[in-house]
C-alpha cells in the first residue's frame, strides 16, 4: 500500500480570544466538486442530487459528530482541469471542507487533486472519474472512486462488441485523460480478442463541425462507429453529423454518451439499437434500499452515477464519524475502515445504526447503493459494467456484461 503522508489538521476558522478560551467546534463540511457546466452538464444534476441525498439522510437522523450539521458546498469544475483547480482551491482553502465528493470528469478530478486536495491533505472520492491515470496518481492515499476504472470498462466494452459479432470498428475519442485512456484500454482488449481497429482518431472538444473527421473515419471502410466522448459535448455533435452523413450502419458509445441530451436534433429512428456501456450497480439488498430511498426523494435511481455519488458522500460522512472529528488528518484510514469487511453491514440511509455502532467501538462495513466498495491500494473498486441500448429515443438498461 502506498505510503500514507500525515499532515496538519486544518485550522479552526474562529479566532481564539484568550489562551483559556475554549475552541469553537465547527460543523463538518463536504465539498461537492461538480461539472455543472461544460460537456457533461446534462449528466451532473442527478449526480449532485445523489450526493446531497446522503447528506440529507445524515442530518435527518441526528447529524454528525454528536449532533452537528453536515454541511455541503458546491463548486463548478466545468469538466476542465484549470476550472477544477480553482474550484477545488475554494473548497479546500476558503470553505475549509473536510473532504470532497468529485470531480466527475477525470481531468477535473486530477486537476483538483493535484492543485488543492493533495497539498491540503483532503480526501476526495469521485463517483464518475474512470481514467486509468487516477490509479497511478501520486496522491498520498487521498483520492478514491466509487466507480470502476476504464481499464475494466474498456475490457467489457471490447467483450461486448465481439459477443455481438462486431469484428471491425472505427473509433473516435475525445483527446483528454478519459477519452484517450478508455480508447487505449478498449483497443488492447479488442485486438487481443481478434477485433480490428480500422481507424482510431482523436478529436478535440468544442468544435461545431466534425465532418472532416467523419470523412476519414468512413474512408476506413468500417460500418460501425465507436464514439468515446460526452453526450452534451462533442459526442452529440459527432453522432448528429454521422447520422446526417449516412456512412455508418450502427453506433456505439461508452459511459459519457449515456444521456438523453445525446439525441437532441437527431431522428430517433436513425439511432435505434445504438448501444453503450457504463458503470452499474450490483444486484442485492443494498441497491434495492437505494432505489426506494431515491424514488421517495424524487431522484431517478438509475440516473448515471447517482448511486455512486450517494455512496461517495455517505462513505465520507461515515469516515468523519469514525475519525471522531472534522479534522482532515486520519480521514483516509477511517474511510478504509468503514468501507471494508469485516464489520456490521450498513446499507444506504442507515445513519443512526452506523453512529450507534461506531460509538460502541464496533466495526462497520458499508455496502452501498452501487455495491461493495472494498478499495484496493490505489483507491479503486471493481464495480460492474452494464449495457444500455437505445429504444424509442432513450437509453434502456439491458443488464450486466458478463
TrEMBL record:
Query: What Pfam families would the database entry show?
Result: Peripla_BP_6
- Signal peptide position in this chain? 1-25
Answer yes or no on keyword Transport.
Answer: yes
This protein's UniProt keywords: Amino-acid transport, Signal, Transport
- InterPro entries registered for this protein in UniProt: BCAA_transport (IPR051010), Leu-bd (IPR028081), Leu_Ile_Val-bd (IPR000709), Peripla_BP_I (IPR028082)
Leucine-binding protein domain span: 29-339
Fetch the SUPFAM superfamilies from UniProt. Answer: Periplasmic binding protein-like I
According to its UniProt entry, one GO biological process term is:
amino acid transport
Keyword presence, Signal:
yes
Which family does the entry's similarity section mention? Belongs to the leucine-binding protein family.
Q: What is this protein called?
A: Branched-chain amino acid ABC transporter substrate-binding protein
The organism of origin for this protein: Pelagibacterium lentulum
